[in-house]
Design goal:
It is a single chain. With 780 residues, the protein is an alpha+beta fold. The protein is built from 23 helices and 20 strands. It has five domains: 52 residues, no CATH class; 178 residues, no CATH class; 106 residues, no CATH class; 146 residues, no CATH class; 192 residues. The strands form seven sheets. A five-stranded mixed β-sheet has the order 1-10-2-16-17. It has a five-stranded mixed β-sheet with strand order 4-9-5-3-6. Helix 5 packs antiparallel against helix 6. The longest helix is centred in the last third of the chain and has 37 residues. Keywords: Membrane, Transmembrane, Transmembrane helix. It comes from Aspergillus indologenus CBS 114.80. Pfam families: DUF6536.
Amino acid sequence: MGTGSDRTREGGPGLLSTWWDQFRYTTVPLSSSNNTRRDKQPRWKTWLPHGLSQDPEEGRAGREWIKGAVVCTWITATILALNSIMLIVALIFAYRQSSNRGQFQMVALYTGQCALARHSATGIHVVINVLGTILLGASSYVMQCLGAPSRSDIDRAHASSRWLVVGSFSFRNFAVMSPKRKVLWGLLLLSSTPIHMIYNSVIFSSIAELESGNLLIPHDLSSTEALVDDTASRESFRARVGLDPAVVQQRIFDGTFTNLTGKECWAKRADDTLYSTLVYVAERKYFHNTSSLWVDGALYPSDHNYHPVEPVYWSYRGDLDIGLYPEVPVLHCLMDESRQRCQLLFSPPIAIVVIICNAIKLSCMILSVGVRRRDLFLTLGDALASFLTRPDPTTRGHCLLSRAEVAEGLRLRGYSALPLGRHQGHLAQAPSSTQSSKPSSVSPSQSAEFRHHPSETILISAYGSPKPIDPRPKQVTPRQRWYHAVSWPRRIILLFCYASCIAISFALLFHGIGSDPFHEAMSIGFSQYARSYVANTNTTNIVALLLVANTPQLGLSVLYFLTNGAVTGMLLDAELQRYATRRRALRCSWPRGPQRSTYYLTLPYRYSIPLLAGSAALHWLVSQSFFFVYVRQVDLAQRLISDELRGCAYSPLAIFITIWVGLAGMMVVVGLGFRRFENRMPLAGGCSLVLSALCHPAAGDAGAAEKPVMWGEVSPDPAGTLAQYDKRRVEERLVVVEGAAETGETGAATAARDGTMEGYPHCSFTSMEVTAPRLGQLYA
């Protein structure tokens, strides 16, 4: 009995054995810690997409870019929440006022003092600009991640004789983007356009021009002396001033009126939004036994602080035509600023459009985080690290390749990498009309040359039509200027846009001033309404006018985009050139070992901060130069008149300053372009072919990507010293010269005919010793 039981327990097919084995031995999955960590995640994380719900440190090899994209996603979600809260609060606050019932296109949040309404709008615009800049920055980062090529994208492009751009976005990269990434990138771009154009128009202020009553009183008027003394005069006073004489007299003595000097009165009198009642104070001798005189508001004072006064009493009924008006010297003024009717307005439709665009951005970012891509090249350091770890055989023998040559149509001998398998001794080439399809054996030197690549591959020729050009040795060029890093079409387009914007601004400025004296036009302050400086528009629709007023903002954004691209291109090559000056670690997006951390993508802070500050200043100046105005008319009884003005006004002073700031920006960009690079390294301009050509270190230079590197002339024999290499290089060069003298061929022609670059030195990024390339020396 016991034996049977033991047999069963030792592995027989009995139920007890099965249960006992399961009890004794439990299968523990290798990812149990990860599962435990996932199980412990909050429930709300399970609702998020894969990229957002995972731990940022979990399974992120090559996908570290998701961390930045996740941060941008949370920032966008926070701004969306703030915008939604502000919309709800504004609607609740607005619709509590009975005057806003039934209104939706625009509602009033505040009615009262013009300065408070104007300053509130300015403060809210500052907050909106900050939020908009952050939102657009987050969107730009995700767009950069979507448009940045990966190593696999570049390998496929090089294999088909194409190239991509690293470090800045280019529409050339669209060719390798999947349809999903193209749609997400396009939606992020399109959703930015309304934010550029209408975000600032969510809040704006309106102006109320008050019909004012002007009167003249004696300087020694007492609180017991009535301004008028009969019923007829009282009715006339009320009709021309808008208030009862007793009320005006009470306000004169209770401090409601503001006491102004003659100059202050002269300056403020022209602004119809500030006051509803203006009282001039003069000596008693001009009053002819009365306590007040009416001042005709249609007549303008002289520059000597004299004001025309109609020589009639309040009791006079009818007009008196005496030809000339007498002049009365004014001692000072009293102004009633308590009845201003300016408004702070809010546009719910525009706010809803902004929130919809914000929600589209958030959705696109969430979907972008879920895109499974690895080894993105966001900066030059990312590309250099990858090419140093796994050199690209496509550009072997082109160590001095430049973007200018690539742009001229140079086709390299392309290769595509396939699994090596067991055929480790052959180099398979694609058949052609002049070449046998039979694989040729690889020489020991070639085998050693290819063996140091991490992934075992054979190289299959991928060139076809047009026929590629064989590698040819080249000489280093003299130091070039920064503008050579930007293609000539981009330079022309950028300068044309700058010149066009400045010329159009000058033309509009002088057309707007017209025959007015220049100093008078310059006296109109920033974003200050003046009836003579209102543009002639054919519409009164508020939304259409807001779009027209913000159209220059869109043009300025395009100009910033072009400027940023040009400066980025110059700085990319400036950074690359520094590696030929001294040894330094690579600057990567996700540093490893001694590698340095990155800036915000490409631009150093000493350039990016002034560029952003200049852009923000220009956007603000443009908003103060050309702006939407909404002017309402208020009569003496504080009733709104149906006649109102909706249009776009401009400030000559703000336009003038904007022009000079734009000129200064253009001069700074041009000045940067005329700087010279520090060394003679070929200009890459972000071209992936050039970057890969710069990274062909010696076979023994393993792990160079995670060490301080330098670009220069390298020794093909890592075991030899540079002195030995220099000696051998001189001897080889003498042999080449002697052979060329006998055959009449140049060294480059001999190398091209023989199909070999042996005998020519080589330049590359490397962690080993290098020497500076020499002028006149051929390199391959």
